[in-house]
Amino acid sequence: MRMGEGVEWGLHCCLTLAWIDADRPVPTARLATWFDLPPAYLHKRLQALVRAGVLSSTPGPRGGFRLGRRPEQITLMDVVTALEGPDDVFRCTEIRRRGEGGGALPREFARPCGVATAVRRAELAWRRELADQTVADLMASAPPGAAERARRHYARMTG
Amino acid sequence: MRMGEGVEWGLHCCLTLAWIDADRPVPTARLATWFDLPPAYLHKRLQALVRAGVLSSTPGPRGGFRLGRRPEQITLMDVVTALEGPDDVFRCTEIRRRGEGGGALPREFARPCGVATAVRRAELAWRRELADQTVADLMASAPPGAAERARRHYARMTG
DNA sequence: GGTTTCGTACTCGGATAAGAGCTGTCCGAGTCGGAGAGG
DNA sequence: CCTCTCCGACTCGGACAGCTCTTATCCGAGTACGAAACC
């Protein structure tokens, strides 16, 4: 059980896009060079963020990606859900009612499985923490001057 | 990103072992029949729980598995860690310092990456919820009479 | 009848193959910018 | 000199392979029981 690498990429890209706050969209190639990532695959992951509304894309020359909404309205949960899918981490297959164990007790199965409930409680705590943190919070917790350095660095790339 | 199926199996098996509280160890075949699971693979997953000390095993005839310690001392975190591995869900690859972006700022990298910190906060909340729940809690939250039914069902299987 | 010995069957344990999902790559559709010709 | 047209290049978007990890399976090592032979 491991989180996909694209989540780290997506969060760093969102943070960078928020910091530089460029007038023009930022193409994939720039971000891939910035972080030394495989351009094609990064592109694929950014597309998933566009489908979720986290980013917006512009085709053609001078095109690229920009934030789909303001940084304080992009939660980490949004990014994780967009990149890892909306499915629950824990999937209850109702094994309690399979096999010999569950033949004759239909009334009890009206309530959800206790094991699933317990694990989902942890998963909800995880999702809640992710939903409480926004890209704006990431910007605020960064060392001072980080945004300025990002802008300068990006200006050096474009020029 | 999905949790392995073995976690559900392991938790249900621990709960069942705690309920029936048999004098003899319970072999894999019984548990596999109980939940209608592939016996060989269930066996492999139970071995992982033995390596973690959650279960203890007895070889030979009349052998099998039993709980390695009391139910109130087996947390859901123990089971998940045993079956999914001890690695963090989110792995920070330090992409901030890779590529063009991180060449000239060595002082800043002394502090951990803000993105990683934010995601790890959520992961810690998840682990904490898992660690706060024990197998004994699962037993307590089950409908009354569940333990008795499990014992009767197991007696019918053995006899 | 009691005891010893042997064989058998059962269980765990780890090493060995298929399948799914993540990672990585490619090419096509669409679009903007600029060069060049014409007025 | 200004405007219109056309060409070219750049970017996103989705479809196509390689690889790691999960799932699934098998066979070997060890052990307790039970039967049989022996005392």
From TrEMBL, chains A, B:
InterPro entries: TR_Rrf2-type_CS, Tscrpt_reg_Rrf2, WH-like_DNA-bd_sf, WH_DNA-bd_sf
PANTHER family given in the database record: TRANSCRIPTIONAL REGULATOR-RELATED, WINGED HELIX-TURN-HELIX TRANSCRIPTIONAL REGULATOR, RRF2 FAMILY
Annotated protein name in UniProt: RrF2 family transcriptional regulator
The species this protein was found in: Kitasatospora phosalacinea
